[in-house]
Write a structure and sequence with these properties.
With 382 residues, the chain is mostly beta strands. Helices cover 7% and strands 33% of the residues. The protein has 2 domains: 156 residues, Rieske [2Fe-2S] iron-sulphur domain (Rieske Iron-sulfur Protein, 3-layer Sandwich); 129 residues, Rieske Iron-sulfur Protein (3-layer Sandwich). It contains 4 helices and 29 strands.
């Protein structure tokens, strides 16, 4: 039977620990455990604020707290030392203040959370296979620096995290505390892109890559959820009603969840290459580039069907709105003829060296996006 995630007892293979020397990364100091009631142990404990949801809206996913072990001491490799990721494999791309990191999905699918410090900012990079979404959040709250673990609980078939300082429960999808001392608090989030290893490595040859030396033994490279993204398979432990505008497992790019939510159909975006729209009145572009494997298709992460990589950006550069089209392996703006990569960097032409402002987006399944943003507009409309 499918479980919410691979637990600590599952697939204890060699993990393929990297032999290359890891790169020293300075991690932020974290705050101590606080003497407050635990929502992880008692959802409605005396002394806690009212939860945002009812306790029966949470579902036990299978493994106990931290049965899916988060990565608390991430180790990294220089990009040119990585020999265990294939060109089409998906990686989670995060960049803060010029510090570019790649988190291979073959690793994150077994751990779901990496507590890290990027560009001097303590963040948690999170990945939920059940809703196929990646989110990065700032771990700082009210002068504290938190660390996050996996609770073993699900909300709308999405990962529920807990912080080890107060044991409040947090939604991975929204970055909001649903219960506990921090109930109602929402963490600052950062853009995450899921792109192919080849495209990330080309863009960031000097970047850092999460190592397989995680402190846990896992069969990295194997997908513990083969066939999960089959559009005809129902979501695991999702008890809500699916918005009938699309099939539950149709892939979408969700933007503006808290403002003017928009879901862009991935299939149409891959066909069209580029879709332009306004996000709260601001010119915005979503684009998709073939060449990235689905991690949730076959029993090997690197052998999944091509689902492409996406990006969402402000299309305004220097006060001028640009119009884009996809070419072979890249994008070109019609105004200057400059070439842009999937990560929004101009790599050739008049605007070479320019970067588009990344807009937070989530690559996910329709059932999850619609559950968290029910008022969403679907694009294209025709």
């Amino acid at each position: 039977m499918l479980t919410a995630c691979a637990s600590a007892d599952d697939s204890v293979g060699s993990g393929g620990r990297s032999q290359a020397p890891s790169v020293t990364v300075v991690q932020a100091d974290t705050s101590p455990r606080e003497d407050v009631p635990s929502a992880l142990q008692d959802f409605t404990a005396d002394g806690l604020p009212k939860p945002l949801i009812e306790s029966d809206e949470l579902t036990a996913g299978g493994p106990p707290p931290d049965g899916i072990p988060p990565i608390d001491e991430p180790r990294f490799l220089d990009a040119d030392a990585v020999d265990f990721v294939n060109d089409e494999e998906p990686v989670l791309a995060v960049e803060i203040d010029g510090d570019a990191r790649a988190y291979p999905v073959q690793i994150m699918i077994w751990h779901e959370i990496a507590n890290d410090t990027v560009g001097g900012v303590p963040i948690a990079v999170t990945y939920c296979p059940l809703c196929n979404s990646a989110v990065a959040v700032d771990r700082r709250v009210d002068g504290r620096t938190l660390t996050f673990g996996t609770s073993g609980l699900l909300y709308q078939s999405s990962l529920i995290m807990y912080d080890r300082q107060t044991e409040s429960l947090w939604s991975h999808f929204t970055g909001q505390a649903l219960a506990g001392m921090f109930a109602g608090t929402e963490l600052t989030s950062y853009p995450v892109s899921t792109v192919s290893w080849k495209d990330w490595r080309t863009a960031h040859p000097d970047g850092l890559v999460l190592s397989r030396d995680t402190g846990s033994e896992r069969d990295y490279g194997r997908n513990p959820y083969p066939g999960y993204d089959d559009i005809d398979n129902p979501p695991f432990l999702f008890e809500g009603e699916v918005d009938g505008r699309m099939s539950a497992k149709e892939r979408v790019i969700g933007v503006g969840r808290d403002r003017d939510p928009i879901a862009v159909r991935l299939e149409r975006l891959l066909d069209d290459g580029v879709i332009a729209f306004d996000l709260e009145g601001d010119p915005t572009v979503a684009w998709a580039l073939p060449g990235t494997a689905s991690a949730l298709d076959t029993d090997r992460v690197d052998e999944g069907r091509d689902v492409g990589a996406t990006g969402v950006f402000s299309s305004v550069v220097g006060g001028r709105s640009l119009n884009f089209r996809r070419t072979e392996g890249a994008f070109v703006d019609r105004e200057t003829g400059s070439t842009w990569d999937v990560l929004g960097r101009s790599v050739d032409g008049q605007l070479e060296g320019t970067r588009l402002e990344a807009i937070e987006h989530v690559d996910t399944f329709w059932f999850a996006w619609a559950a968290f943003a029910p008022a969403t507009t679907v694009l294209p409309t025709g």
